[in-house]
Amino acid sequence: MKITAAVAHDFGKPVKIEEVDLDEPKNDEVRVKLVATGMCHADILATQFQMTPLPAVLGHEGAGIVEQVGPGVTNLQVGDHVILTVASCGECDQCLSGHPAECRRVNELNFGGNYADGTKRLHQGDQELGNYFGQSSFATYAIVNKRSAVKVDPELDLKWYGPLGCGLNTGAGAILNVFKPNVGDSVAVFGTGAVGLAAIMAAKMRNVQQIIAVDIHDNRLELAKSLGATTVVNSRDLKSADEIADAVKQVTNGYGAKYTLDTTAVSMVSLAAVKSLDIMGTAGLVGATQELKMNFTADMLADNRRLMAITQGDSVPQLFLPQLIEAHKKGQFPFEKLVKFYSLADINQAMAESLDGSVIKPIITIDENA
């Protein structure tokens, strides 16, 4: 069928809104009519670096309505409202033990450009287009595996909920699924973009005593306070990881935080997250930090600290996303305060405004009438 999609042809070039051919769903797949798709930083990075083969259709925070069901699909039917999330095989030891984000085929299925059977579903004439995160949802329609579509209440206004499939899931899951802080604990979150603010909202849901937001923008720190941060640190003029860590320790009685979460992927800030820990504290990194150099004895061993990577909030989306939706309904997870909507035609503007920091969470509206 003919669809409209935002096609990334070359690295460093704007994406183009073009007509694309979409194949029929195969075994275990469904076709989804997209209502809206959140924009994650990983979508922007994929237009700049070799994260996935181009040309491709990007987008991986889709929400829409099932229009066609392929063979073998029993958990979904035509008309179901769904949020799309990352691809996983469902068969390996990691998937079967409740860690689909650590699926042994996760890089292949999300960044390799193909579906699980090694083929593609998107074409322009003789040119095949790569798939992204198992969905390619910057388009009017997408083919996804049944595991990647989380059924939700049809009464929900779908245009808001795509970001739960990746960014918000990542931040909230790091707190609720991995750290699981207690009431008397302290949590420091470095970076107050969508992922960091989701973590702050989740920490408030856990009634954490001290929630520290660290960023270089006063307006974002003010937003963080409105969403649950009890303390803010502007690190704009701090020149080293030690200076940032000292600032965090100053607001934690000199001890440091029990948990720290770096969402920036900036090496200096990632190191600061480690150095900001209390004795036996745990630091989590959720961004694509590159080199991270430290003195293991001084920064880790001496205080028995822990450092871990966290992907996709270590969540099972079919279980966790409904929990976040319920929290949103109760006003405990007000992520709508982060959002600005754009049309598909304005997707390059959305990318630019996300990059310059003027917008926290862009959402691309695909079906204006939904």
TrEMBL record:
UniProt keyword NAD present: yes
Obligatory cofactor(s): Zn(2+)
Entries under SUPFAM superfamilies matching the protein: GroES-like, NAD(P)-binding Rossmann-fold domains
Gene Ontology cellular-component terms listed: cytosol
InterPro entries the record matches: ADH-like_C, ADH-like_N, ADH_Zn_CS, ER, GroES-like_sf, NAD(P)-bd_dom_sf
Domain of life: Bacteria
A biological-process GO annotation: formaldehyde catabolic process
Stated family: Belongs to the zinc-containing alcohol dehydrogenase family.
Name the record gives this protein: Alcohol dehydrogenase
